[in-house]
Backbone:
């Protein structure tokens, strides 16, 4: 299957300068925005910064219920040897569990992925029906949770999963207090407005190492320095129950967790049904289904239970 023209070339042998993004941040459908719960002010901030942080978005009872589910999945022997459970590079601690939006993995988190409070915001930003491209829990356990190098999620989803355009948004639900010492997610405001091609071809079966320590798809330091000089670096700190929505191309990363407190977040990646993956743009084959949905693009309907 050949790809249409690659508008966002990356994973090249030689360095290619960054380019302005070619996609809108707030999408439209036949030139019309979709209505939804985000205010004009919130839309303007998402358009400008590439993310929105809502403190106290979920109540304490919901947070307790989700955390119980995180503990259950972390201890589930049935998942122990599944390749969708990623362990920390320097310990046996669980780093991530993927595909948690699938009912067979977690009925409760599958319902959360369809929570209208998330779904309607994602549909509003993407101006279309949506489905889950990827979901995961990043546990970042105390002392043992290592960081994530600077990257654009879209750069990986484009080169390795075949996501054509920047029409996806991540919802990160903060389930343990994210503070300055336990490796909160850091973002470069405004970085979503540029596509930073990354040097270095995609290795075969890259995902077998990239989910522990990402090498391919990490932008060069000069580009990161230039973008962070424009608007600085912000840490998405907030109490358990907060929600971070970030655009698929916003540069982000995080430090290792040096504190005893875990930094556990659930992530749902909402992709537009108008943006389903084609062939990878810079990899020899698709990544496994636990990392990127490739078959069922049925639009999500709200779970009102
Ligand atoms: O490769 C991926 O799809 C994952 N890697 C990172 C560092 N963030 C996005 C996603 O979970
Ligand atoms: Fe990421």
Residues:
């Amino acid at each position: 299957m050949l790809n249409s023209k690659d508008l966002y070339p990356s994973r090249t042998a030689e360095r290619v300068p960054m380019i302005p993004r070619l996609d809108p941040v707030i999408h439209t459908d036949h030139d019309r925005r979709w209505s939804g719960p985000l205010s004009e002010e919130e839309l303007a901030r998402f358009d400008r910064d590439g993310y929105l942080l809502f403190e106290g978005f979920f109540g304490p009872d919901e947070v307790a219920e989700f955390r119980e589910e995180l503990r259950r999945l972390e201890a589930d022997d049935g998942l122990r040897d599944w390749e969708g459970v990623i362990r920390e590079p320097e310990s046996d601690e669980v780093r991530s569990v993927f595909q948690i939006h699938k009912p067979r993995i977690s009925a409760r988190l599958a319902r959360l992925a369809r929570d209208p409070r998330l779904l309607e915001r994602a549909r509003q930003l993407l101006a279309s029906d949506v489905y889950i491209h990827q979901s995961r829990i990043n546990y970042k356990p105390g002392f043992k949770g290592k960081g994530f190098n600077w990257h654009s999620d879209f750069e990986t989803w484009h080169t390795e999963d075949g996501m054509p355009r920047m029409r996806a948004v991540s919802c990160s639900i903060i389930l343990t207090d994210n503070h300055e010492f336990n490796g909160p997610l850091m973002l470069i405001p405004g970085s979503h407005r540029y596509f930073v091609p990354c040097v270095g071809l995609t290795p075969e079966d890259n995902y077998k190492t990239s989910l522990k320590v990402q090498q391919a798809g990490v932008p060069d330091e000069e580009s990161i320095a230039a973008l962070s000089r424009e608007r600085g670096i912000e840490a998405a700190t907030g109490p358990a129950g907060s929600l971070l929505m970030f655009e698929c191309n916003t540069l982000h990363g995080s430090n290792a967790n040096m504190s005893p407190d875990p930094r556990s977040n659930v992530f749902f990646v909402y992709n537009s049904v108008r943006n389903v993956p084609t062939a990878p743009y810079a990899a020899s084959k698709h990544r496994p289904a636990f990392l990127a949905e490739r078959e069922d693009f049925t639009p999500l309907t709200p779970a009102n239970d």
